[in-house]
Structure formats: C-alpha cells, structure tokens
User: What shape does this take?
Amino acid sequence: MRRFLSFRDFDWGLLAMVLLVCTVSVLEIYSATLHTKYVESHFQSKQLLWIAGGLVAMFIFSKIDYHRLIDWVPWAYGICIVALIAVKVVGTKVLGARRWIKIGPMHFQPSEWVKLILILAVARYFANLGGRNLTWREIFKAFALVGVPMLLVLAQPDMGTSLTYTPVLLAGLFLGGINIRQALILGTAGLVLVFGAWHSGKVLKPYQKARLTSFMDPDNDPRGSGYQILQAKIAVGAGGIWGKGTEKGTQTQGAFIPIPHADFIFAAFSEEHGFVGAFFVLLLYFFILMRLIQNAQTAADLPGSLIIMGIVAVLTFQIAVNVGMVIGFMPVTGIPLPLLSYGGSSVLFTFLALGVAMNVRMRRFVN
Assistant: This one.
C-alpha cells in the first residue's frame, strides 16, 4: 500500500517540465556546437548520458526516506570536507584551477556535490533547533557549517561554485528563525567584510576582481575582461523577437561566444530563438520553482520544508546569476544554468536534488 501511495504521489508534472528543459538543452548543445571546434566532442550525446544517469539517480533518491538521509548527513559532510582537501592536494589542474579529481576517464567535481550535502546539513541543523528564535551562537554555528566548505572551494579557486553555497545558508536562517535586527546586523557586517576583502588584495585574485567589475562597463576592456559579456549581449540582441533560427546565429557559429554549450548557452539559445524562446525557457524555470515551493508547503514536517526550500534557493540563485551574466546585469562567475548548460556534475546534482524533493513530496502523508 505504501509503495502504491509513493508512486501515486510522485510529481509527474514537475518531472515533465524538467525533461522539457533537458530536451531543449540537448538540442541547443547540438545546434550551438555544430559549426564550431566543439563539434567533434559530441557534447550533446554526453549530455544525454548524464541526463539518463541523473534520472536513474533521481528515482533512487526518491525511494530513500529523507529522514535517513538527514541521519547520514554528518558522515557525508565529513567525506565532502576530505574530498575538497583532496582536490587541493591531488586534483587535476585546468586553466590554473584545481577543481576536479580524475577517476579513470571521468573527472569528479566534489564542489558540486557539496551543495546537496549542505542543503541536507542546514535542514538538519535548523530542524533540530525547532524553529525558535535563533541565538547569536546558533547563527555563528550555521555560518561555520557553510563557511568551511565555502572557503575550501574558494581556495581552488572556484568563486562561482562557492557563491552557490550562500543561498543555502540564507534560506536556512530565514526559515530557521532569524529576526530582523539580527539580519540587519549580519548584513552590515557582511558589507564591511566584503569591502575589506576587496581592498586587502589577499582574498580575491586580480582576474577575479576584473570579472566582478567588468560587467558594469565592459567597453573599458572589450578584448579582455569585458569580451565575454559584450559578445553575449550582442548575441542576445541579435536574436530579436523570433531569433535567427537553429544553426544560424553568427555570434554562436562564429565562435564569438566563449564555450556556447556551457556557461553561455542562454546567449546562444537567445540568438537562435529570440525573445520568445528565451521567455519560454524562463517561464519553464518559473513553473519548476513554483512547483517545488508548493511541495515545500505541503511537506509533512519542518526538515522536509527546509530541504526543498534550500533546493529552491540554490536553483533560483544559479538561474538569476547565469541569465543576469548573459544580459550584462551580473558579473561572469562561471555558474551554469541548471539542466540547460552542459556539465555532468551540475546535471547530476540537479537531478539528485530533485530526487530528494520528490522524496519529501511522496512522504507528505506517511507518518
């Protein structure tokens, strides 16, 4: 009877929208790389394999009681810290950064998996506090919980991924019982720390500073730090209302957009399909996020709600930053667009997170 209920309560509507985004991803990766140097890499076929693997992982995680996952999270958190340290010691170095551990023919990026562990760890921490008003000691413990892996990822250096841990903490604090006075004090302290880190010259490297400031005036360095943003904005504008059509985008096919199948896939898609196509994709994301929030509202307990809202926070942050980057409203940080950008670690994280969200939904009527 319980098995029947779980399949009946599986969110097939959410899955359908997710698969629609994945379909757009595979087709756009194929189109964006067809006449470029990436064509022989067959990224669209690899993306299909990652999606298939992600679907299997999602169904497996949807069947494991999320209360068990929460019980296991201290061990998983410890393993993730060890993995992040291992990346720094024995990781594969690509373009000056150590972010991957090579396992046979595959590259494993622990920082992507840490997001899911942090979502579960933060949910466990605040659920154990019972939703009461937070003390400063409890707030600082939450900061330490997220801050340790964040600093380890920042040291790789991978500023983009480390920033995605922030919304997990913010969602936990907001739902966990922080009051307005505490939030204002933390906000002010955060601004002071950011200002100090910016001017210290020890936290951020020069190229990272250039990335964070180039979006405000990319014309100052059109062939350097501002190049990516300028080319992406040209591609988006060139798409017009209806787009230039599949495989006809000059910015994309002319290799002006850097890595059009990954971080800048939204620029390539907008050039080919215009405002209408871009609006359709953003609408899909909106419906996915709203469906997840609805599932959080119907969760059986506080841990379930915290888990899903942590997932919503991360996905919303990634979508906002990636799209904002492409249209020149945000700095270039290397944050992928969930399920649309090519990337095995990112795709698997998203499906695993959705599997946990399905898990919470399927058990909302089970004591």
Remarks:
- The longest strand covers residues 97-103.
- Residues 1-5 have pLDDT under 50 and may be disordered.
- Residues 33 and 39 are 5 Å apart (CA to CA).
